[in-house]
TrEMBL record:
EC top class, as a word: lyase
Alphabetically ordered keywords of this record: Lyase, Metal-binding
CDD domains listed in its UniProt record: DRE_TIM_HMGL (cd07938)
InterPro entries xrefs: Aldolase_TIM, HMGL, PYR_CT
Protein family (similarity comment): Belongs to the HMG-CoA lyase family.
EC nos: 4.1.3.4
PANTHER family assigned to the protein according to its UniProt record, in alphabetical order: HYDROXYMETHYLGLUTARYL-COA LYASE (PTHR42738:SF7)
Name of the protein this chain belongs to: Isopropylmalate/homocitrate/citramalate synthase
Keyword Aminoacyl-tRNA synthetase assigned: no
Length: 286
């Protein structure tokens, strides 16, 4: 039997969070519901963040309450602090994610605190989650390059990844937030991270700004990673990372995995159809 690769669908969250036009709540719900029929095991639905910071995610509660849950799918949400975590509990999210950074510039712009302060802010959330037996995923952004600070030292990424892992995150997702990584920089960064966190606990979250995300995934596969984040139709961008275009497209990652002989459980023909719907939600097409 072929080896399994998990493709974690980010479209409803990372894909839509940066859209200028407010995507109607019913369209967000329709996107999640249609994704739920494609064979995903994990979908990141929305973010319980400050609506002043990310207005597009202001309907997080309505979206979570409106979706039709498929029993085989884990529905995850972003939670930057205890306030977000409490809101996520209220709508029975299956999993939450905290998001830190390996660079100070992005940490300050994205979550309004230093890297060290962010870790302190995550601790009470992680403590509550442990008590509730709620799985927590940990993101580390800007793993090779930061839009504010330039290149990120691999040791810094390893340091933050190790802290989040030891604090209880079940998986560390490594974000090439602005899609500036190359196979070489990803390789060097992974060598540092994999010395402190096992490969099966690490995911690749690569934006495709420069069209290199698939190559970066291939390097990561070779180094033992088996989970990758992507967005249907390549939707996306981060409001606090200028130049960050879409995530790598789910349908392209699924095809790559098929070519490389990995099982994903995804229905490729359904993905192609849904990519068109996802793209129609963009401001430039809607
Ligand atoms: P702050 O201003 O320092 O926080 O923001 P605060 O605690 O002082 O609160 C300020 C206001 O926000 C208060 O409201 C709080 O109640 C409210 P006010 O009294 O002014 O009316 N607030 C909240 N409201 C709803 N939900 C919450 C929440 N927390 C506080 N959870 C904060 C700090 C973290 C809240 C803010 O900076 C924030 O929300 N940032 C989120 C930014 C974001 O979502 N960025 C995109 C996601 S990250 C990403 O895309 C990268 C990733 O994809 C990986 C990669 O690609 O690298 C994951
Ligand atoms: Mg991202």
């Amino acid at each position: 039997m072929s080896e399994f690769v998990t493709i974690f669908e980010m479209g409803p969250r990372d894909g839509l969070q940066n859209e200028k036009r407010f995507v109607p709540t019913e369209d967000k719900i329709a996107l999640v519901d249609r994704l739920s029929e494609c064979g995903f095991r994990k979908i990141e639905v929305t973010s319980f963040v400050s609506p002043k910071w990310v207005p597009q995610m202001a309907d997080a509660q309505e979206v979570m309450e409106g979706i039709h849950r498929h029993p085989a799918v884990v529905y995850s949400v972003l939670t930057p602090n205890v306030k977000g975590y409490t809101a996520a509990l209220k709508v029975s999210a299956d999993e939450v994610a905290i998001f830190g950074s390996a660079s100070e510039g992005f940490s300050n712009k994205n979550i309004n605190c230093s890297v060290a302060e962010s870790i302190e802010r995550f601790k009470p959330l992680l403590e509550k989650a442990r008590y509730d037996e709620m799985p927590v995923r940990g993101y580390v952004s800007c793993v090779t390059d930061c839009p504010y600070d330039g290149p990120t030292p691999p040791e810094k990424v390893a340091e933050v990844a190790k802290i989040l892992y030891e604090l209880g995150c079940y998986e560390i997702s490594l974000g090439d937030t602005i899609g500036a990584a190359t196979p070489e920089t990803i390789g060097r960064m992974l060598d540092a991270v994999l010395a402190v966190v096992p490969a099966e606990k690490v995911a690749g979250h690569y934006h495709d700004t420069k069209g290199r995300a698939l190559e970066n995934i291939e390097v990561s596969l070779d180094k033992g990673l088996r989970t990758f984040d992507s967005t249907i139709g390549g939707l996306g961008g981060c409001p606090y990372a200028p130049g960050a275009k879409g995530n790598v497209a789910t349908e392209a990652v699924a095809e790559l995995m098929q070519r490389r002989g990995f099982e994903t459980g995804l229905r490729l023909e359904k993905l192609a159809e849904l990519a068109e719907f996802a793209k129609s939600l963009r401001s430039d097409t809607a």
